[in-house]
Design goal:
With about 220 residues, this protein is of the alpha/beta class. The chain folds into two domains: about 5-20 and about 90-220, HAD superfamily/HAD-like (Rossmann fold, 3-Layer(aba) Sandwich); about 25-80, DNA polymerase, domain 1 (Orthogonal Bundle). It is about 40% helix and about 10% strand. It contains nine helices and six strands. The protein has helices at about 25-40, 45-60, 65-70, 75-80, 95-100, 115-125, 150-155, 175-180, 210-220, and strands at about 10-15, 105-110, 135, 165-170, 185-190, 205-210. It has a six-stranded parallel β-sheet. Helix 1 packs across helix 2, helix 2 (about 45-60) crosses helix 3 (about 65-70) and helix 5 packs across helix 9. The N and C termini lie close together (about 10 Å).
Amino acid sequence: MLPALSHIESWIFDLDNTLYPASADLFGLIDVRMGMYVQRLLGCSAEEAHRIQKNLFHEHGTTLSGLMRNHRIDPHEFLDFVHDVEMDALEEDRRLIEAVARLPGRKLVFTNGDANYASRVLEKLGLSKSFEAIHDIHACAYQPKPHAASYDSMTKALNVDPATALFVEDMARNLKPAKAIGMTTVWVNNGSEQATRDADRSFIDFEISDVGHWLHQILGE
């Protein structure tokens, strides 16, 4: 293990565009269905629905959070609808599977999606038995990353000590609260549209492009 990471006891991973390449564009399919949901809910054009959905995402962290606040929708209904996508673009990455298995300590998933969807993704990736737990948007009481309450919820529910935890995430803004509570942070800079353009990168400890490759590097291979 890389000496700088020898203290890590909990390895926490985001899901979308982190445990699989952004090029799979699974979120693109979800994004389309979110637009469809907003269009149906508000009776507006597809173009207007897209604009509203993006504004909700940027203002509230997730489209779901904004819709719950502004329109009091049922989160289960929304998540079931938007996650009803094909996962043919996903495939197993043996290098990643083997590296995760070799990590010392606990392995956890922390996602703004829900556990049912996350479980489907992990199954398709061959990682269904690789993680101890999934902390999802329901467990966060619908306060998504990067809200501080989301991280507090996760650390308490999963008994994680931030000082000995590492968090891997493709959205850099979601790493800032993690760093603030003492976590080691890893940004997957993979060209995802959610990547930050902020000049401040002080809250990022490691910047990588591929999780499997990086894990093998720190494991000394």
